[in-house]
Amino acid sequence: MKKLLALFTCFLLISSIRGQETVVLTTDRDIYIGGESMWLKITNITTSTNQISPVSKLAYIELLNRNNEPVIQEKVYFNNGVASTQILIPDTISTDNYMLRAYTQWMTNASAHNYAQDIISVINPFAGNSLPNIAEKKVVKQSDNESLKLDLKGLQSAYEKRQRVTMALCFEDLNWNHYSVSVVKSCLYKPENNNDANIVNSKLSLEHTKMPEHKGELITGTITSFDSGEPVVDEKMMISFVGPNPIIDFSLTDSLGQFAFEVNRFGQQEMVIQPYSTDTTKLNYKINLEEKYSSDLRHSEIPDLLLDSLSVKEINRAIINMQINTIYSSHLPESVKADSIENIESFYGIPENQIVIDKYIELATMEEVIREIVPFVSLRKTKGEYSVKVYEEKSLYPRDGKVMTFVDGVPINDVDRILNISPEYMEKIEVINLNYYYKDENLGRLVMFYTWNGDMGNMDFDKRIFRQVHQGYLLNHTFISPDYSNEELLHSRLADYRNVLFFGSFEKNKNEGQESIEFYTGDDAGEYVVVVTGINEMGKKEVMTKSFVVE
Fold this sequence. Notes:
Layout: H1 2-20, E1 22-27, E2 31-33, E3 37-46, E4 51-52, E5 58-64, E6 70-77, E7 82-88, E8 96-103, E9 116-123, E10 133-134, E11 151-153, E12 158-159, E13 164-170, E14 178-185, E15 217-225, E16 236-241, E17 248-252, E18 258-263, E19 268-275, E20 285-289, E21 306-307, H2 309-328, E22 336-339, E23 353-356, H3 366-373, E24 377-382, E25 385-390, E26 403-407, E27 410-411, H4 415-419, E28 426-438, E29 441-451, E30 466-471, E31 473-474, E32 476-479, H5 487-490, E33 500-507, E34 514-520, E35 526-535, E36 541-550
Parallel strand pairs: 2-9, 6-31, 10-21, 12-36, 26-29
Antiparallel strand pairs: 1-3, 3-4, 3-7, 5-6, 5-8, 8-9, 11-13, 13-34, 14-33, 14-35, 15-18, 15-20, 16-17, 16-19, 19-30, 22-32, 23-28, 24-25, 26-27, 28-29, 35-36
């Protein structure tokens, strides 16, 4: 009876997932060159209303080869339900078609058939199989799609090099709340790629229900004892990250030794998970983290990559463009603006006391540094081991209570390890000399040691503590077009051979049915295509294209 009830509950849950949340994936084009960046937009919506979904705050992105092996795995954070970013295509992968897919953790409780997915092509001149298969018959080029009631006012049929392009998107008759605009070389846009791969074996798993990541990424796992192999129960665990803007969080293990932390981190950082207890005898444990990416790899058929000889000739020119732009990229104006929602402050805010080490005469050891220049902090030695005591401002003696010491944001209980750091690695020391309360924990007084490189310096790290590289969210990126209204830049001899002239994402609700787009052409003559992709009231993508020529 209980099993039937559990299955019925899972059925209701999965039914609600399908109705509650879906992601829509849009890329700047369909064909990429190895070493280029892919611009993409992911929108998280409630299917029934076509409004932003409140369920999940992040999505997972994967690029799978035809063997279902991931060659790219990334995470993005939704800012008001939308993430716009770019991903570097590795220059080590083979020329072929690939499956690009995106989903939330909440969506993984249902079939992978519900994930957002596109087929993209990669031409990699640096790989062994650098040339795609040539089609026996010429691939018929699809003409501009003008069936949708979207007007591109102001778009001309031809432009000169480095000329301003200004157009207005008018879509009063289209029920689009979210849309994106891309302007790329026409040879890199192949509309037939937008079809999903043929699903051969799509399964539905009810074995383990994953919770929605409503505020941030859920890092989950189990802790077991090395000695007995049994789960460590009712142990308060804490998580931290090596870096200049530390966080700390806690989780009490359940009857299965499971823990869960909710974090929001951008970029790559080292993650440290350890017991909150200062009793180092409890460090004889093993931590296993739960896999974040979907295990449903779908066994899908990815179509072969076929191009006609004319397309190959045009793509070879785009490859040259990519190489030229790579050479001159360091000298060109900034073309990307990166942003994140990450709080740059440490979890304890602004400290009462901060000591910058290089303002003082160089001292030989960290013990001398603490004793000589750090206020309200003293060292005590008992049975051959050092401990740190912190005084209140108007007291000659420390009150009873613990002190937490950190190195680059990581709690370090063994003070001797801190004292063994060479002072030359140390940038500053921050002290909070009153009890600090975080959530339901009294952390006591805090002494924070920061190294110049934010990598814990030359500290001898306790190898028994779990330490692993964590890949956080990609930064949100905004495309920036060169501004050739600047006369000096207009007449610059630096080459501008961009394959992508523009990429942007927009919301209709904020623009009253019209959006103005402005960008500049580059130095490469040829045909370009404006691709406008919107999300209709059914949560499906609709695409309109229109071409122009740079002479």
